[in-house]
Amino acid sequence: MLTIKCARCKRKLFKYEKIGTGRLLHLWPDRIKKDHSTHEDKKVKCRCGNVIGVDQGIWIKLRPQSFTYTGSYIRK
Ligand SMILES: [Zn+2]
Fold first, then answer.
1. Residues 62, 5: contact at Cβ < 8 Å?
2. 34 is a domain residue
């Protein structure tokens, strides 16, 4: 499980179940276990106003500089 945090204020944004290795570029909605972000139209934001990504319908496309994450991958 990965914990995704805001790069600006360090608030927790998501708990996310990532399957496989590789860079985290987008989030599949059904793998998000906890969502602390705010959604404004298509923008996914932290409560501090930092834009984390864009909701593109099938997934949330992340902005790489906007977040950090810790945790482990599920290997398949
Ligand atoms: Zn923030």
1. no
2. yes
Residue numbers of the domain that contains 50: 2-71
The verdict on residue 76 lying in a domain is: no
For residue 23, how far is its CA from the centre of ligand 1 (angstroms)? 21
Q: Is 16 within a domain? A: yes
Distance 22 CA to ligand 1 centre (A): 24
Q: What pLDDT score was predicted for residue 22? A: 81
Backbone dihedral region for residue 20 (phi beyond 0: left; psi -120 to 50: alpha; all else: beta): left
61: which strand partners?
26, 54
> Structurally, how many domains does the chain consist of?
1
Per-residue model confidence as pLDDT tens digits over 10-35: 999 999 999 887 889 999 999 999 99
